[in-house]
């Protein structure tokens, strides 16, 4: 998992819960990195999972809800760092439908060894989109949060349902209906 995911996560934890919480979740975890991350480094997903689990235990907020909040934060990083990418699109459905064929291609140009989930578009119309998310990691709520922020970015709203297709949450169907 790319380091930017860790550095931004720890920035969010510091902003929302304080530096003491950052120290607490790092020292409570068994991290090969020692909790020292660079944006361009690559780290084990198990480290992120430990940080999330300890943050959840300390705050009483579910991991799924923490991932939603983190995705909202991360979208603002995308807006700041890659405004040209977002400017390519005029509609949230178009942008979400292009994750696999455009956005992830651009991400791989910056982070060639990034392990990204896949999004298979099953159905698409002007007002709806059905996609299958597949990943070795159960971070579908991170994807859901990014989708929510995508609609907000375009001053639009939507109903987004997710249906777990396996117990691990590594295969999920997203059903998106633009309001």
UniProtKB/TrEMBL annotation:
Gene this chain is encoded by: hnoX
Phylogenetic lineage: Bacteria, Pseudomonadati, Bacteroidota, Flavobacteriia, Flavobacteriales
- Please state what the protein is called: Nitric oxide sensor HnoX
InterPro entries in UniProt: H-NOX_domain_sf, Heme_NO-bd, NO_sig/Golgi_transp_ligand-bd
Which Pfam families does the UniProt record give?
Answer: HNOB
Q: Which residues form the Heme NO-binding domain?
A: 2-161
């Amino acid at each position: 998992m790319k380091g930017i995911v860790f550095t931004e996560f720890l920035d969010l934890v510091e902003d929302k819960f304080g530096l003491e919480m950052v120290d607490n979740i790092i020292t409570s975890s068994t991290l090969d990195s020692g909790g020292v991350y660079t944006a361009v480094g690559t780290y084990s997903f198990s480290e992120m999972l430990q940080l999330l689990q300890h943050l959840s235990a300390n705050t009483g907020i579910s991991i799924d809800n923490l991932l939603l909040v983190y995705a909202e934060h991360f979208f603002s990083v995308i807006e700041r760092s890659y405004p040209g990418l977002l400017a390519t699109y005029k509609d949230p459905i178009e942008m979400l439908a292009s994750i696999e064929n455009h956005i992830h291609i651009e991400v791989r140009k910056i982070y060639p060894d990034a392990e990204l989930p896949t999004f298979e578009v099953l159905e698409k119309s002007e007002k709806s989109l059905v996609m299958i998310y597949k990943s070795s990691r159960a971070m579908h709520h991170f994807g859901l949060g990014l989708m929510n922020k995508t609609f907000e970015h375009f001053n639009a709203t939507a109903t987004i349902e997710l249906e777990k297709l396996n117990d691990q949450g590594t295969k999920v169907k997203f059903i998106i209906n633009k309001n």
